């Protein structure tokens, strides 16, 4: 593996490659951003309610490691899991598609 002075150096090297796909890169960044946003929302609501991860897991019919994984931004929850998680967190699950903002 090549030595790099910083993450910026590594990023510049990757961006300069002929096979670099900017759209794919941005899609990955957006997916990661959403996972972190989702994880933070779950954790914040759980703490707001004074619940442990185990409490949420029991309420949602999940296992504590499942809740931990979701709170760390890992895994991809199913629609059913999201509905059970919302119930456990005393929320209503709503899924919708929206048109992107006009530029």
β content, as a range? under 5%
CATH H-tier superfamily of the domain at 21-88: lambda repressor-like DNA-binding domains
CATH class of the domain at 21-88: Mainly Alpha
Average pLDDT confidence is 89
Protein name: Helix-turn-helix transcriptional regulator
Domain HTH cro/C1-type: 42-96
GO molecular function, one term: DNA binding
Features:
single chain; 103 residues; mainly alpha; 434 Repressor (Amino-terminal Domain)
Describe this structure in words.
The chain has 103 residues and is mainly alpha-helical. It has a domain at 21-88: lambda repressor-like DNA-binding domains (434 Repressor (Amino-terminal Domain), Orthogonal Bundle), CATH 1.10.260.40. It is 61% helix and 0% strand. It has helices at 7-16, 22-48, 53-60, 64-71, 79-88.
Outline the secondary-structure elements.
Elements (H helix, E strand, L loop, with lengths): L6 H10 L5 H27 L4 H8 L3 H8 L7 H10 L15
Helix pairs in contact: 3-4, 3-5
């Amino acid at each position: 593996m090549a030595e790099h002075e910083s993450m910026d150096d590594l990023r510049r090297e990757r961006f300069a490659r002929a096979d670099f796909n900017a759209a794919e890169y941005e899609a990955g960044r957006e997916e990661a951003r959403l996972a972190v946003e989702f994880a933070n929302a779950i954790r914040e609501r759980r703490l707001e309610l004074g619940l442990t991860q185990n409490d949420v897991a029991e309420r949602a019919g999940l296992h504590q490691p499942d809740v931990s994984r979701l709170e760390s931004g890992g895994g991809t929850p199913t629609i059913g899991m999201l509905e059970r998680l919302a119930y456990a967190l005393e929320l209503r699950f709503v899924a919708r598609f929206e048109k992107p903002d006009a530029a």
